[in-house]
Amino acid sequence: MKPDQSENVAKMADMFQRQREAGKLPLFVIVGAPASGKSLFGRALAEGGTATAYVDLQPSDWRETARPHLRDHLSSFASSFIVDNAERANPETLTETVEQELSKGNTLVLLVPMLTDIPKNLLTQAAVARMDRLSVTQIFKHHANGALRSFG
């Protein structure tokens, strides 16, 4: 039996709404250690959304070392993308792809183990939440000066 993620999905919906109301880009980063529940949460978000795609960049073969281009995994049929293992994305094209999707009005949720896995220029545009023991515990806004401040 899967743990209930409805409370986390509700927190994320509130975070989406706050970003929208503030006129901010719909870019979110969920940070958490391995086994913290990020993937479970990401799949729950995708299942509950309309026109939402869950994209897992984890290679099927552990020996795979190539860094996939995020753009090669995004569907034109979705307007929201939950990107698990986003730290695996090719860093040379990650920022460009995210910015292109945001310019189309699409929403992106990037799931990563550490903040340093995401380019700083993307973090300054994103709302950041922490996943800990299957729960979204803290929500922050990352600022250009590098500080994280409580969101809302």
Describe this structure in words.
With 152 residues, this protein is of the alpha/beta class. 29% of the residues lie in helices and 25% in strands. It is built from four helices and seven strands. It has a seven-stranded mixed beta sheet with strand order 2-3-4-1-5-6-7, with helices on both faces. Helix 1 (6-21) packs across helix 2. The protein is globular, with a radius of gyration of 14 Å. The mean pLDDT is 83.
Provide the fold topology:
Layout: H1 6-21, E1 27-31, H2 38-48, E2 52-56, E3 80-84, H3 91-103, E4 107-112, H4 120-123, E5 127-132, E6 135-142, E7 148-150
Parallel strand pairs: 1-4, 1-5, 2-3, 3-4
Antiparallel strand pairs: 5-6, 6-7
Helix pairs in contact: 1-2
- Write out the strand line-up for the largest beta sheet, numbering strands in chain order: 2-3-4-1-5-6-7
Number of beta strands: 7
The portion of residues assigned to helices is 25-40%
Oligomer: single chain
Number of helices: 4
Main β sheet profile: 7 strands, mixed
Gyration radius from CA atoms, angstroms: 14 Å
- Residue share in β-strands: 25-35%
User: What class, by secondary structure content?
Assistant: alpha/beta
- Low-confidence stretches are none
Q: How would you state the average pLDDT, rounded?
A: 83
Order of helices and strands: HEHEEHEHEEE
Q: What is the straight-line distance between the termini?
A: 33 Å
Shape estimate: globular
What labels would you give this structure?
152 residues; alpha/beta; 7-stranded mixed beta sheet; 4 helices; globular
Describe, in short, the structure shown.
The protein has helices at about 5-20, 40-50, 90-105, 120-125; strands at about 25-30, 50-55, 80-85, 105-110, 125-130, 135-140, 150.
